[in-house]
């Protein structure tokens, strides 16, 4: 399956953030763009499905006075694909497109991109 050209450059992170659906741990965020993200997991994720996602932010992340346990954002994402990781076949990578991202969460995503990208 050929993918459409990427509108925004993908940013690989130096810090892997944890991604959940509800209380279920899905995997780690391994790259992110303004349009979506990629998650590495131990099991394949269901393609063509909307997920209600939660991303934990690290304690070092500047966070408008909220408590450490509240350092997370909630958003919806469409899983566009899921496949074996090219380097380690014991893991899977899955691509998500953002959906219904609030303005505040959009700003946080941009901050994550700026602060944790590989330089």
Please describe what this structure looks like:
The chain has about 120 residues and is mainly beta. The protein has one domain (about 10-115): predicted glycosyltransferase like domains (Thrombin, subunit H, Beta Barrel). It has one helix at about 105-115; strands spanning about 10, 20, 25-30, 35-40, 50-55, 70-85, 90-100. Strand 2 (about 20) and strand 3 form a beta hairpin. The longest helix has 14 residues, at about 105-115. The protein is globular, with a radius of gyration of 14 Å.
Q: Count helical runs.
A: 1
CATH topology descriptor: Thrombin, subunit H
Q: What is the total number of structural domains?
A: 1
Going by CATH, the homologous superfamily would be: predicted glycosyltransferase like domains
Helix content: 10-25%
Which second-level CATH architecture applies? Beta Barrel
Query: What series of H and E elements makes up the topology?
Result: EEEEEEEH
Mean pLDDT: 82
The CATH top-level class label: Mainly Beta
In what order do the strands lie side by side in the largest sheet? 2-3-4-7-6-5
The biggest beta sheet is recorded as: 6 strands, antiparallel, barrel
Overall spatial form: globular
Instruction: Give the helix/strand class.
Output: mainly beta
